[in-house]
Predict the structure.
Amino acid sequence: MNVTLYVVNGSHPCATAERALQLKGIPYKLVEFPPPMHMAAMKLLFGKRTVPAMKVDDEKISGSRAILRRLDELQPEPALLPADDAARAKVEEAEAWGDDVLQPLVRRVLWPTFKAHPEAMATYSEGSKLPPIPVPVLKLIAPVATRIEMKANEASPDTYPADLRTLPELLDRVDAWIADGTLGGETPNAADLQITPSLRLLMTLGDLRPLIEARPAGQLALRVFPDFPGDAPAGIIPAEYLPAAA
Ligand SMILES: N[C@@H](CCC(=O)N[C@@H](CS)C(=O)NCC(=O)O)C(=O)O
């Protein structure tokens, strides 16, 4: 069986799919595209613009949740969903929230931050196999790249402060799932793999890390993803947008 994973370096759902492959011990090849060029390439290859996508021999699978389901079929152990119906429903609910609510919010926070501070983007190529883009070039291409990404992700000057304000509420929700055992088991389940890379990516922003790190949500994100590309210094998100630390 030949498995190829198509990714953008530092993308949170790509981290979900790659960690699932690693957990299951499935050997894979990685194909990496730079954003936002990946959209056209993925549309051509998979008929859908987004990463991650996976090829298993000639079979094409798009989307982090679909990829995890397929991996559970290909290699049942360790299972990414609990066998018990009630526990499984809770994990699926948390996973869907991570995909539909948290994942897009992270993009709507990151891209406006990069638009204002393109130099911060340089650290997000950590671990990439693509040639690094020098900061002056990044600054040159940032206005176009961030405009395309903000449009694709429906990010705007209005969504930016609104999303940042909801952060404590979202973290409360993750903490509650950890407290009731839906998240945070010994081996990461599908919801852990979906939610923790989003939190970990937010924690690469120095302004947000102190809001997340000490909470159960932050600790879980660091356990599942000790390392993550990106390290943007504090002081780049306007202070008036930042929620108070808990
Ligand atoms: N929620 C889906 C979609 C992932 C997604 O939107 N990926 C971003 C990169 S993090 C992307 O490729 N965006 C391009 C676009 O929206 O066209 C998943 O988990 O697979």
